[in-house]
Specification:
- The structure is a homotetramer.
- In chain A, helix 3 links the parallel strand 1 (about 50-55) and strand 2 (about 80).
- A six-stranded parallel sheet of chain A has the order 6-2-1-7-8-9, sandwiched between helices. In chain A, strands 3-5-4 form a three-stranded antiparallel sheet.
- With about 300 residues, chain A is α/β, with parallel strands linked by helices.
- The longest helix of chain A has 18 residues, at about 30-45.
- Chain A has 13 helices and nine strands.
- Chains in contact: A-B, A-C, A-D, B-C, B-D, C-D.
- Chains C and D meet through helix 5, strand 4, helix 9, helix 10 and helix 11 of C and helix 5, strand 4, helix 9, helix 10 and helix 11 of D.
Chain lengths: ~300, ~300, ~300, ~300
C-alpha cells in the first residue's frame, strides 16, 4: 500500500507540481484530481482512443469556454456532446456580448426590472436575445433545410468570426452533438420561424447514426463528463456499442444516492457494458469550474 | 411571526396530519414539504392555471410511476415533460418487465456477467432490450412517419395495454414532451432502423410549436419539477412566453452553487420572467422518492 | 430478487401505510426510509439491545424536540449524545421562549439591528440570552461543583418545569452526554462566572467512564445518528468496546467523499469494529426534519 | 459590472497565475477560490487581525497536515480549534505511523480481519492504538494533573520529536483548543487510566477563559473554517464577544438548507453579530483537500 504523503506546497509552484503533490497524498478530492490528470494523459497518449466529452451545466457563463476551446484544438476532445444552453451562451459571446460577475444575494425582482437574467451569480443582459434573433433572422434560410443537428451547428459555427466552441468544432471538423437542441435559446429562435409557418427540417434522431457509428468503429473509447444530464447519458448509451469505455473521468457535484444518471458513479456503467471492466476511471466530486482548470492546467 | 411549533406525531396518524404538523413547525425540510403541499393544492384549485410537470431522474426505476399516473389521471398534470429514460423504463414495464431491488454494494463486473444493468440500487435484466427491439420492429411502420415527438409518444401509448405513463397520456390526451428522445432506449430502437437505411421523420423542433402555444395561451401557469435536466429547462424556457409561472414547486438534491439549471433555486427564474414575482414557490431539497409520495399522499 | 413495486398512495392513508408502500418499492430514498423503520422496530423489540442516539444539527430550532422527547419516554433511546447547541435551544424553550418561522432570503444586517439571530430560516430573539444568563445566575451555586457533564445536565433538567429534553432525561434517568458542552450557550453562561474568577468543577473526560461502561456491559447495541459531528463520533468510539453495534440508522445530508466522520457511511464502521459485520444498517440521505417524523410516525 | 472573463490556462503556469485567472472569471467555484485567496491575503496583511482557524473533517488522514503546519509557522493561524480526531491522527503520525491510500470499494469485513481501519478511502492499521496507548502510559503522570485542555495539548506537543501540528503549536506557542477532546483517541487513552481509578484533572470549560479573552481583546478578527462541527461553532460563539469577524473564509461541502451550523453560510453570522456587517467573506463549496492546497499554494 502506498502511504498518504502529507502534501507540501511551495512558493511559486506550478499547477503541475501541485497536482503532483496531490497524487502523493492520493486520497479524497485531492487524490481524485490527481487520478483524473493521469487518466486524461493516458487517454490522450492512447492513439487508438476516441475521446467523447460530455459538457453540461452553465459552463460558458461559468468561465470555462476557453478551456473547452483549447481542449478541442489540442486533441483532448474528438466528439463533443453538450446542452443547447451552453451553445447558446457560446453563440451569445461570439456575437459580441459578455456575461457579468454578479451575486446570488440579490432581489430578482430588481434584476427583472433592469432586464438582467441571473444564472446563480452570473448576470446576463436580456437584450442579448434581440441580437440572437437578428442573427437567426439573417441566417434562417441557410439553416432551415439542414436535417442533421450536427451539420446545423457546424453551419452556425461557419458563420462566426469570433473564437467560440461552435466555430472551433466547425473549423476542426469535430462532431458536436446536442440532442436537446429544442431546449435552448437556439431552439427558441428557430421556433420563432416555425411559429410563423416556416419549415425547419431538423430531425430528432438523424445524428444518432453518426454518433453510433463513431462509437461502433472506435478501437477504444474514453469518456469525460462535466456534469450529467443529456450530454453524459447520450455518450453512455453510445458506449454500449463499444467494448465499454477504456477511460472515464467524471466531474460533478450531483449525488449518486437518488438514483439519477447525472450523479451515478462511473463504475455503475460496468454492469451495463458502458464502461470496460478494466477501465481506468475516477469520479471527481467537485465544482467543475475548480476541477477542470486545475486538471487542464496541469496537463497543458 | 409564526412560532416554530414543535412537531407532534401520534399513533395511526394520517399522512395529511403529519404534513399538517410539518406546516406548524414550518422550517427546514419539514416546512418546505408543507409549503409544497399547500402550493400543489392552490395550483389544483386555480381553474385558470395550466400545470406543467417536469420529470427527470430515475423515477420509474425508483418506484414513482404509479404516482405520476395517478397525478395525470386526477388533474395535477396538464403537460408532462420528461426524459427518454423514464419513458423507456415505463415502456419496459408496460411490456411486462419489472425492475428489481438490488444494492449499490456490488461488483459491477459480476452484474455484467449476469446480464443485469444497475441503476444505483435498482437492477434491471438486460434482456428487456430484446423485447423492446421486438416491439419497435413490430410497430416501426406505424411510427416512422410521425414527425412530432408528442404524437409519436402518444402513438406508442395507444399500442399499450398495461397501465403506464405513455398510455395514460394518450388516453387522457395529455401532451407529453420529450425533447431529448434521441437520448434513450426508445431513441436507440428507432436508430436501429435508421442504421439499416430506413427513414424516420421525427423532427427536433416540431413540438416547440405546441409547447409554446400552450404556455402562450394559458391564463396562468404552474410548474412542478422533479429533478432538473432538460425537463425543467424546457418548461422554464416556455414560461418566458407567459407572465411567469404563478406557482412553483421544485424537488431536487442538486445544489445551486455550481450554477447549473438543475440545482438553481426557483426564485432565480424571477429575473428571467420565468417565475412571476408574486408566485408562490418552494424548493424542496429532498430525494424525490421520499418527498413526492409524502406530498401526494397528503393531498390525495 | 424482490421487484420494485410501483408505490401507491391512497386518500387518507396513514403514515404507516405510506412507509409500507415505500418498503415495497424498496429502493433509493423511499426504500431507505422503509429500511430505517424496520431497523428501528427490530432494535426496539430486541430487549438485549442498548440504544444510543446521536443528535446533531439544529434539531430543536427545526421543530424536532417533541419527537426526541417522545422517543426518550417510549424506550427508543437509552443513551442520548447531543450538541450543546441543541441543549441550549431546548433550555431556551423550557424557559418560556420560542423559535420563529423566518426566511433565509433576508438582509442579515436588518436582523442584527432588530436583535434577531438567524438559524437558516428559523429566527430567535437575541434577548433569550438575558433570560438564560438570569437562569445561570440563580442556579450557579447548585451547578458549579458538579464535575460530571451528565450530572450537570441532569441537574439543569431537575430545575425545569416545562417539558424538555433535559427534563425528560432527568426524569427518566436517561444518560445524556455532551462532550462539547464548552461549545454552546450553556458553556458560555458558565464561562461568564469563570471569567469573574469563580470556579467550575466540570471535567472534560469524567463522563467517558459511564459512557464506556454502558457500551462495555451492553449485551447488544444499536445506534441512531441524526447528523454527524461529535454526537455520532462519540458513540462510534464507544462502539469499539462492544462487538460492534447490531443495528444502525443514520440520517444525514453530508456526503461521504470528502472523508469526514459526519458523512461516512455506516458500513465503514465494520472495518473499525464499530459496527458488527452482521448488523442491520441503513444510511438515509435526507433532511432529518423530513425523515425522522416520517419514520417515527410510522412506528408509533 | 465586471465581465466574466473566460479563464485561460497556459503550459507551466503557476498556481498563483491559475487563481489569478479564476479571479477574472470571478463566478461559481472558481470565483470563490479567488475570493478566498484575496481574503486570506488581506487577513494576513492586516496586522491588527487575530486569525482563528477551525479545522474539522479527516484532514490529517486526507493529507493536509503539512499545509496546516506551514500555515501555523507562517502566521496564517493565531488560534487553532480542531477536533480530537485530527489531533489523534497527527499524534499517530508523530509517533512514526502513516496513513495509506486505500479505496472505498472494499469489503469492510475483510479490512476488519486484517486490522485495517477505514476512513473513506484512507486506510490505517489498527495497531497504531497499541503504540498510542504506550505513549500515554509513559507520559500519563506528566499529563494527568493538567486542568486546561490547551496546556494538556501543548504538553503532548512538547514531548514530540517529529514535525506535527501538536509540536508546532507548542513550539510557536499558538493556542490550540479542542473542546471535544473526550471524543477522540486521545480522550480514549486517558479514559483507559480513568477506568483504572486514576484521576485526570482536565476541565471542560477552563479553556473558554483564554479563548474568550483572545476574542475580547483582539482589535480585529478573522475566521477560517475547514468544515464545520465544533471547531467552527466554538470560534463562532467567541466572535460574539467581538465586533464580529472582519474576514471570513469557509470551505465546506455541507449544505445550508438542513439548518445545521456546519453548512450555514457565513452571512448568517451577521444576524448574530458573529460576522461584522462590513466583513469580507466567502463560502467555498469544495472538498477541502482540493481547495485548501490550491488557495495556500497561490498565497505562498
Amino acid at each position: 500500500m502506498k502511504s498518504v504523503k502529507q502534501l507540501d506546497v511551495k512558493p511559486g509552484m506550478s499547477v503541475k507540481e501541485l497536482v503532483e503533490e496531490m497524487s502523493k497524498s492520493g486520497v479524497f478530492g485531492a487524490g481524485r484530481i490527481a487520478q483524473a490528470l493521469q487518466i486524461l494523459k493516458d487517454m490522450k497518449d492512447d492513439k487508438s482512443c476516441v475521446k467523447f466529452f460530455g459538457l453540461a451545466g452553465a459552463m460558458v457563463p461559468g468561465g470555462m469556454k476557453n478551456i473547452i476551446i483549447d481542449m478541442l484544438k489540442n486533441g483532448y476532445i474528438d466528439v463533443l456532446v453538450t446542452t443547447g444552453a451552453n451553445l447558446t451562451h457560446d453563440l451569445i459571446e461570439a456575437l459580441g456580448f459578455e456575461h457579468y460577475q454578479g451575486t446570488s444575494q440579490v432581489d430578482d425582482k430588481e434584476l427583472h426590472k433592469k432586464g438582467i437574467d441571473r444564472i446563480y451569480e452570473t448576470f446576463m443582459p436580456n437584450k442579448v436575445y434581440v441580437e440572437l434573433e437578428k442573427f437567426f433572422n439573417e441566417h434562417f434560410k441557410e439553416l432551415k433545410d439542414e436535417n442533421n443537428i450536427k451539420e446545423f451547428l457546424w453551419k452556425i459555427g461557419s458563420m462566426l468570426k469570433k473564437e467560440s466552441i461552435l466555430k472551433t468544432c466547425y473549423d476542426k471538423k469535430i462532431p458536436i452533438f446536442c440532442p436537446g437542441i429544442a431546449d435552448s435559446g437556439i431552439g427558441l429562435m428557430m421556433w420563432g420561424h416555425l411559429a410563423k409557418g416556416e419549415k425547419v427540417e431538423l430531425r430528432a434522431l438523424e445524428d444518432l447514426k453518426e454518433m453510433m457509428d463513431i462509437a461502433w468503429t472506435a478501437k477504444k473509447t474514453g469518456v469525460i463528463y462535466i456534469g450529467g444530464g443529456v450530454p453524459k447519458n447520450y455518450i453512455q448509451q453510445a458506449m454500449q456499442l463499444t467494448k465499454g469505455a477504456s477511460y472515464g473521468i467524471q466531474i460533478t457535484m450531483d449525488r449518486p444516492e437518488p438514483g439519477g444518471s447525472s450523479g451515478a458513479e462511473l463504475r455503475e456503467g460496468i454492469s451495463w457494458g458502458k464502461l470496460n471492466e478494466k477501465a481506468k476511471h475516477v469520479n471527481v466530486i467537485c465544482d467543475a469550474t475548480i476541477a477542470l482548470p486545475l486538471i487542464y492546467a496541469a496537463v497543458k
